[in-house]
Design brief:
By secondary structure, the chain is α+β, with helices and mostly antiparallel strands. It has helices at about 30-35, 50-65, 85-90, 150-165, 190-195, and strands spanning about 15-20, 25-30, 40-45. The chain has five helices and three strands; from the N terminus they run E-E-H-E-H-H-H-H. The mean pLDDT is about 80.
Length: about 200
Amino acid sequence: MTYRTENFNLLVEPWIPVLGNDGTTSRLGILEVLNQAHSIKQIAASNPMDRIALHRFLLSVLYWCQGSPEDHLSCNPDEPFDSKYFRKIVDRRQFFDLLGDSERFYQIRPVSGSNSNSRFVSVNYLVHEVPTGSNFVHFRHSVDTVEGLCPSCCAIGLTRLPVFATSGGRGKPPGINSKPPCYVMPVSRTLAGTLRLL
């Protein structure tokens, strides 16, 4: 797969792994996932933490676009979403740029002089399974300044980190749920139905 690395806008670039109702797998951008959610069986990330994080992320995008859900659930939760809901994210597409010199998705630049400890860290910190630094107890070894992640893996790591980050280690705060949480979620026949049930 070839990526354009000058920008990588998450609305249109393929990064979310999905399994279609026809059994095919692919990666899609946010807009395609939401517009085709009725024909997608499920998020196809191999890591359960990524699956939960991507469901939470897509649900937050739906809330941002549509507002509070309707009072009544459709007789068919697996029906397509109305594409007019997604005009808001198309109008604000710059918020979904993963790379570039302007604002970036889920990222902030250290402000010079505001914090003397601000520093850039390896992108490998986004993925728990990739050891960083000199962590020699892992079977997979990487070199932070040499090996990196593809843009898709970076985006998935950015959605997973705030949900599953653990506390400890050099004063880093825990994720949004404090302790590592356990999640239970209802599942429908399609991604559209699952998102409606959540």
